[in-house]
Write a structure and sequence with these properties.
Length: about 525
């Protein structure tokens, strides 16, 4: 008797979960299962059911080329009378094409699948989404409308129609669609995430932030809503902070919103605002755990208040034994205070608790350098480079030690060449490519790199201009460096430690600090550093 494989969406999800639990194709259970499939195909090379089943397994294991080969064979041998199976095969191949970024091919298979089963709303929805992604808006609109007619209370087709309305510059209709979708599922956090996506397309960041906050209110464990809110702060910090502040005014006892505002402020160098929020959390007993004190320590460190930072990090350390990260922070604070032996002690403890962790390795390297142990520092930075070869900053730390203390300038130059050769986004300032070019004597190229970033990347928190100040001060171009410094401070970059102390490698403003205009600018913006 033939075995029929009716793979529903739920079963596919279950298979995917199973495959994930097996980790990879080399798992013994997976290998044994694949061996059985191979044996059955050896006995019958035209067994389309086995090809289909194995294609599903390969798909769930992210083995898309193998999955495609098997599903091609399944389709080759499946009789035309097996319409149910053919429907599933075309749907699976469409998904494989989607994962392989072959959307045009996926659409052809989805059209065939819809012809085989015109009642499948799941396949029709996938087809509409694919048409939208390919810019076939008229076709997508037709399919979304058809889905909406099947069930007027389905939210996803309405969201799709809203996205198309935005593309057609019909914002009134877009609002109508997304508001209707929300009215059908007002207790579902996901619908607010969808509306936030549409509102971002419309340029309505304020509305998008409001929706993300509602999603978090409904489901505090919604990691996507939290991630989206944090990501939005990277492009529109003010909209996110304004939205959170409004939510806090309406619900002052909800610690989640105060905590989110604190963390987002902290991540954008608005340390004094974050300090106020963290203290509110503590004073009003909204939360009380080690992480609050650890974050406070980081903020006080950022604005150069090292004794306060030390007090807070010691409090964090006393509250938990899972405190390797806090030992890293205490090492940073001790190093800034000039207590190098105590800093090294904390860094060593951190590395014992977090063996192999890049942050702990790098911090211990910095502490070793501070105590004059340059060979050890170089080895640690080398270890960090091997473990995280795309992290450009560690190359500069090692190069600085080699150049300044170990008489290994040739080796240092090779590190700069490696940074310059790293494949990085041209607008990613933390590729530090311009600094590597400068250290190779390519001043014009370094200038062009930074000019491109400052002209085309949004400097939400002043950090881009801070690195501009670092680069131009290294060049000796103080006018450009001071201009970048003023822009950085104007945009709220309040890392006082970076402005006044950081000098671990060429990525610093150390060469500006003797200029009277540098001190004058810090004094003019001193409100950034006062809690």
């Amino acid at each position: 008797m033939k075995i029929r494989y009716f793979i529903t969406a739920a079963l596919i999800a279950s298979a995917a979960s199973y495959a994930h639990s097996q980790s990879n194709i080399e798992n013994p259970i997976t290998k044994a299962m694949m061996g059985v499939y191979a044996q059955e195909l050896e006995e019958n090379p035209e067994n389309y059911e086995i090809y289909f089943r194995r294609a599903n397994e390969y798909y769930n294991l992210n083995q898309y080329l193998r999955a495609l080969s098997d599903i091609d064979n399944a389709l080759k041998y499946t009789p035309e009378t097996e319409t149910d199976l053919l429907f599933q095969e075309y749907t699976l191949r469409a998904n494989i094409y989607m994962m392989s970024d072959r959307k045009e091919d996926a659409l052809i298979d989805l059209e065939k699948a819809c012809q085989l089963d015109p009642t499948s709303t799941t396949t029709l929805f996938l087809k509409a989404n694919t048409e939208y992604e390919l810019g076939k808006y008229a076709d997508a609109k037709e399919d979304y409308s058809k889905l909406s007619r099947y069930d007027q209370h389905m939210t996803e087709p309405l969201i799709g129609l809203a996205r198309i309305a935005v593309k057609e510059n019909n914002l009134g209709l877009a609002n109508e669609y997304i508001d209707r979708a929300v009215s059908f599922a007002s207790a579902d956090s996901e619908v607010y995430l969808r509306r936030a996506d549409v509102r971002k397309l419309m340029g309505n960041n304020t509305g998008a932030v409001d929706d993300l906050i509602i999603a978090i209110s409904i489901d505090k464990e919604n990691s996507r809503a939290l991630a989206e809110l944090v990501a939005m702060s990277n492009s529109d910090y003010n909209a996110v902070i304004t939205g959170l502040s409004s939510a806090i005014q309406q619900a002052p006892a909800v610690g989640m919103f105060v905590y989110l505002r604190a963390i987002i402020s902290m991540s954008h160098y608005r340390y004094t605002a974050a300090i106020a929020d963290f203290h509110q959390i503590i004073d009003e007993n909204l939360y009380n755990y080690a992480g609050i004190y650890g974050s406070l320590a980081e903020c006080y460190y950022g604005i150069g208040k090292y004794q306060e930072a030390l007090t807070e990090i010691n409090q964090a350390l006393s509250m938990t034994t899972d405190n390797g990260e806090y030992y890293i922070t205490r090492a940073k604070i001790r190093r800034a205070m000039g207590d190098y032996d105590k800093a090294l002690e904390s860094a060593s403890t951190a590395l014992d608790k977090l063996p192999g962790t890049i942050k702990a390795v790098v911090e211990k390297g910095l502490c070793e350098a501070s105590t004059g142990n340059y060979e050890e520092a170089s080895e640690l930075f080398g270890e960090a480079i091997m473990d995280a070869p795309d992290n450009a900053y560690n190359y500069f730390l090692r190069a600085a030690v080699m150049t300044d203390h170990l008489n290994q300038t040739a080796a240092a130059r090779s590190l700069y060449r490696r940074v310059a050769d790293l494949d990085a986004d041209a607008l990613n300032v933390k590729s530090f490519k311009g600094f590597a070019l400068l250290m190779q004597g390519k001043t014009a190229d370094a200038t062009a790199w930074m000019d491109n970033i400052l002209a085309n990347a949004k400097d939400v928190d002043g950090s881009l201009n801070y690195y501009g100040a670092c680069l131009f001060s290294q060049m000796g171009n103080m006018e450009r460096a001071l201009s970048c410094m003023e822009n950085s401070l104007e945009n709220g970059y309040a890392d006082y430690t970076n402005w006044t102390k950081t000098d671990d490698c060429v990525i610093s403003v150390a060469k500006m600090r003797s200029d009277k205009r540098f001190e004058a600018l810090l004094n003019r913006y001193d409100y950034l550093f006062k809690d």
